[in-house]
Design the sequence.
């Protein structure tokens, strides 16, 4: 009697992605966030150099704590995308492909982006 192999039920919440995979997914998410937010940021900054009233409007919008949090989130997205992009350039050049090195550079990217976001966010707040 032949037994059929049944499809495997994957419990997606229980699957743990390795740190290089998390950095890769966050690189993609941060790129999408930056792309989608670019028109908003350009619109926000468009009139700031033309008239004093436009600059005061910009300052009043940016002084809102929720807007500051959104801008800090976008700052993280930029810094993570930048750091991960440099890592991926090295990977494309076949540097750091070993498992331990890949895990180490992924951790460095993750920590560097967070630390730079905290430093620049505190400085800009």
Sequence:
């Amino acid at each position: 009697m032949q037994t059929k192999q049944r499809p495997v039920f994957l419990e997606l919440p229980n699957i743990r992605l390795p740190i290089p995979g998390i950095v890769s997914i966050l690189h993609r998410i941060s790129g999408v966030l930056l792309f989608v937010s670019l028109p908003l940021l350009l619109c926000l900054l468009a009139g700031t150099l033309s008239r004093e009233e436009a600059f005061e409007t910009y300052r009043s919008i940016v002084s809102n704590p929720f807007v500051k949090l959104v801008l800090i989130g976008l700052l993280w997205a930029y810094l993570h995308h930048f750091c991960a992009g440099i890592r991926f350039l090295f990977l494309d050049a076949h540097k750091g492909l070993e498992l331990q090195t890949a895990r180490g550079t992924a951790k460095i990217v993750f920590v560097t982006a967070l630390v730079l976001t905290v430093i620049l966010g505190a400085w800009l707040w």
